[in-house]
Amino acid sequence: MLKRKAWDKMLSWKQNHTAQALLVAGARQVGKTYLIRQFAEQNYRHVVHFDLIDQSDLRDALNLARSSRELFLTLSAYAGEQMVPGETVIFIDEVQECSEALTLVKYLVQREGFDYILSGSLLGVELRDVRSLPVGYLQIVDMYPLDFEEFCWANGLGKEAWEEARAAFLEVRPVFNAVHERLVSLFHWYLLVGGMPQAVSAFVEDENIAQVRELQNSVLRLYRYDISKHAPESRRLAIKEIYDQVPAQLDSQSKRFNFSALAPRGTYERYSEGFLWLVDAGVTIPVRNVSEPKPPLRLSEDRSFFKLFMNDVGLLSAACGMEAARSILADDVNINYGSIYENAVAQELVAHGRGARFFRNRKQGELDFVTEVSGKVVPVEVKSGKSYKRHSALTNVLATENYGIERAIVLCEDNVSSEGRITYYPIYMVAFI
Fold first, then answer.
1. Do 102 and 258 meet the contact criterion of CB atoms below 8 Å apart?
2. CA distance 129 to 124
3. What number of other Cβ atoms are within 10 A of residue 423's Cβ?
4. Is 290 left (phi over 0), alpha (psi -120 to 50) or beta?
5. Nearest Cα residue to 323 out of 192, 200, 185, 190
6. What's the pLDDT at 308?
7. Into which CATH architecture does domain 5-142 fall?
8. 268: which of 1, 89, 241, 363 lies 20 to 30 Å off by Cα?
9. 3-state class of 27 per DSSP?
10. What gap in Å lies between CA 222 and CA 432, rounded to an integer?
11. What pLDDT digit, counting tens, does each position of 363-415 carry?
């Protein structure tokens, strides 16, 4: 079983919650159902599991419920397992299929003796106001593909090695060389494998990249199927086209999403609903431009000017084909890995609760990412090649006193070093920002 950070959040909910259900949200195939089942079986004597996609008759019955009593009676009728107060957790999977379950959950949790865990995919598109339903009675845990630290756990990296890297980040000193080399190697594998649990498990078991690619391609097909099934009918073709365009758009020099590639006069306004659907579904990560790198970044965000990354770097690598995998494994310096590296950084920032944005100015140039740490803006440049100390845009921004930027980070392949206000960190240290 893969160790996941969401487990500790679920355990904290069980130990500390009062009248609250737990909602585990996230894109398809990130491991929600498996983790919840393992958690439930280890922490409760009785587990009642409902799947509202497979159990269509139950779903229809729940949608007809008009009170918490009717909802609970329906659950008990379909339980198929003893429901003992104080010893039972009720797990409702694919809850996006039944809006009534979320609407009435605040009444269910007030019935003493039972815990409720809900999970769902596509919650952002099926239930756009889910986070306001019901206020105070629902604790939300967001799950993502495995982040790099979880990937390291799966590959047997010792706790001491990870703590050495963290200490080096905080102390701004080089990492012990053997640890550094191991982490760089694992990060290269992470670029190929990503964090989808099935792909990670397959890689850990036999390091068969062909099998990993097959699993990743099945996820890509599943995401396209979800578009066909769940997206508004009038927008499905456009949404598929946007999703399929992500690798090519990231491979362009600017990496910014250009809607004119979809149609001669394509604009954000024309395709905004499709773009937002993919974001709400959790299958893409938007990194929006800010007009100036000053806090709070949210106030200067341009929602129509952005880069669009995949929710998992392994899926992007798979979409780029096996040749990209061979080049990364061979350390081919003639290949531009920029988009793949940036996807991994965007994914890591989101998983750690950091906002992911970028800055572009015609005179000063473009910064790959800007984020806020302790209320201050920190530019983050991503360099996959050997010339990582060439960064004219970063130099220009640091020279602009009006921005008030105190320090900047360049993520690269080398060990930790520092020059003035710029610290050069190995790429895997994005986990510590």
1. no
2. 8
3. 18
4. beta
5. 192
6. 96
7. 3-Layer(aba) Sandwich (3.40)
8. 363
9. coil
10. 32
11. 999 999 999 998 899 999 999 878 888 899 999 999 999 999 999 999 999 99
Q: Is the separation of the CB atoms in 102 and 95 below 8 Å?
A: yes
**Residue that is written with structure tokens 């080049």 in the block:** 327
Dist CA 157 CA 328 (whole Å): 21
Tokens of 419: 């020059």
Could you tell me the two tokens for 191? 């670029």
Compute the distance between CA of residue 89 and CA of residue 99 in angstroms, rounded to an integer.
20
List C-alpha distances in Å: 326 to 188, 316, 318: 11, 14, 12
Which residue, chain included where needed, has tokens 């078991």? 205
Contacts of 25 (CB under 8 A, 6+ apart): 32, 119, 120, 123, 130, 140, 141, 142, 143, 282
Task: Give the domain ranges of the chain.
Answer: 5-142, 149-432
| Other beta carbons less than 10 A from residue 403's beta carbon | 17
CA nearest to 307, candidates 387, 253, 351, 353: 253
How far apart CA 369 and CA 288 sit, in angstroms, is: 9
3-state class (DSSP) for residue 287: strand
Residues β-bridged to residue 301: 290
**For 248-274, what is each residue's pLDDT tens digit?**
999 887 788 988 888 887 888 889 999
Place of tokens 């073709």: 237
Distance of CA 388 to the CA centre of its chain: 27
Q: What pairs with residue 298 in β-bridges?
A: none
Rounded CA separation 180/247 (Å) = 29
User: Would you mind telling me the total number of residues written for the chain in this entry?
Assistant: 433
Q: Which two tokens stand for residue 107?
A: 């009444």
| Positive/negative CA dihedral, 230, 231, 232, 236 | negative
Residue linked to tokens 């890689």:
203
Tell me the whole-structure pTM to 2 decimals. Answer: 0.93
C-alpha 218/C-alpha 199 separation (Å) is: 10
Whole-number Å distance between alpha carbons of 110 and 18: 9
Cα 27 to Cα 290: distance, rounded to the nearest angstrom: 27
